[in-house]
From TrEMBL, chain A:
Organism whose genome encodes this protein: Zingiber officinale (Ginger)
Source taxon at top rank: Eukaryota
Coiled-coil zones: 86-113
Domain LOB, first and last residues per copy: 6-107
Keywords attached to this entry: Coiled coil
Name of protein: LOB domain-containing protein
Entry annotated with the keyword Repeat: no
InterPro entries per the UniProt record, alphabetical: LOB (IPR004883)
């Protein structure tokens, strides 16, 4: 909270008295004028105030950081904003899923082919799910037939806490990832199809 | 645009939709939610100003991106698009780990198969030499 002699960056820009209960003051210190300037330029001060007031106080700092990130991205790229980066990530995820599918197919050739000759005897048998079901849960546990064979590590649960990226220092809490075929990447693509490419087909998202 | 076919923006803002309405091309009346989200997060005048500052041929793409960002922010008021980025990064990280594991397994099996095949070939060669190599066969034994 700033004193009356040092208004927050928001009130300074808006040229108004910074009240003790100013919703911006905890998150827009006077020594970071650009942060509020960007957010105001993209979202508008009143929209940001409304958004922050809807949130619990402990959520507001994270919200401000993400708003500042989005505002900066949009000012840097007025056409795509941070959606451009999201598309890049989606493309990368698709490529990885494709590569994984190929690798799993190759692996299944070793696991599912019946003992086609003496050279396959003695290899451990793994109860293996070759399909990449969103990559959320791990694959099944190995059952080594030969106790001297190494038990290879199984697929693991993904770490649900993610770092925000190079521009922010805070750590995001667990993001609700989705199970099912394709996982979050697929859901995202569905949302984009509805909102982005075919706006006329959308009927109410709320 | 006549009053009968007001764009979603003008309908939401309860104003007349004129022929040169700047928002009409990007917010058709068939998708009122799209503009509602955008208005809630960015505000109509902000969006109008942002689109006006962009070359005309890129405005549609920009409007789509703005609509997506607004949608994600409405879905997740705390993290918005940043939450989407974070989730994607997490999935990518997991997919990379799983790919590396799978490729390592393939390498192990491939190496074993090569080694087993080499052993079989060596055995076949030895059996093919027969008496000359002094191989013990049950029928040979007195």
């Amino acid at each position: 909270m700033t004193s009356s002699s040092s208004p927050c960056a928001a009130c300074k820009l808006l040229r108004r008295k910074c009240a003790p209960e100013c919703v911006f003051a905890p998150h827009f210190p006077p020594d970071q004028p650009a942060k509020f300037a960007n957010v105001h330029r993209v979202f508008g001060a009143s929209n940001v105030a409304k958004l922050l007031k809807q949130l619990r106080p402990e959520q507001r700092e994270d919200a401000v950081v993400s708003l500042a990130y989005e505002a900066e991205a949009r000012l840097r790229d007025p056409v795509n904003g941070c959606v451009g980066y999201i598309h890049l990530l989606q493309r990368r995820l698709r490529e990885l899923q494709h590569d994984l599918s190929l690798a799993e197919k190759e692996l299944s050739n070793y696991l599912l082919v019946p003992a086609a000759g003496p050279h396959l005897v003695g290899l451990p048998h793994y109860a293996f799910n070759p399909s990449f079901a969103g990559g959320i849960n791990g694959v099944a546990a190995p059952m080594a037939m030969n106790s001297t064979d190494p038990v290879l590590p199984v697929g693991m649960l993904y770490d649900r806490t993610g770092s925000f990226g190079a521009t922010a220092a805070f750590r995001l809490p667990a993001v609700q990832l989705l199970n099912g075929a394709g996982g979050f990447g697929a859901l995202l693509e569905q949302q984009q199809q509805r909102q982005y490419h075919n706006p006329e087909q959308t009927h109410g998202e709320e | 645009m006549s009053n009968y076919t007001r764009c979603a923006a003008c309908r939401y803002l309860r104003r007349r939709c004129c022929e040169d309405c700047t928002l009409a091309p990007f917010f058709p009346s068939t998708n009122p939610t799209r503009f509602a989200h955008v208005h809630r997060i960015f505000g109509a005048s902000n969006v109008s100003r942002m689109l006006q500052q962009i070359p005309e041929e890129q405005r549609s793409e920009a409007a789509d991106a703005i609509a997506l960002e607004a949608f994600w922010r409405v879905q997740d008021p705390v993290y918005g698009s940043a939450g989407v980025i974070s989730a994607l990064q997490t999935e990518i990280s997991g997919a990379q780990r799983e790919l590396a594991e799978t490729q390592a397994r393939v390498a192990v099996y491939a190496a074993r198969a090569r080694s087993a095949n080499a052993q079989v070939s060596a055995d076949e060669e030895r059996l093919g030499d027969g008496a000359g190599a002094g191989v013990y066969l049950p029928s040979n034994h007195p």
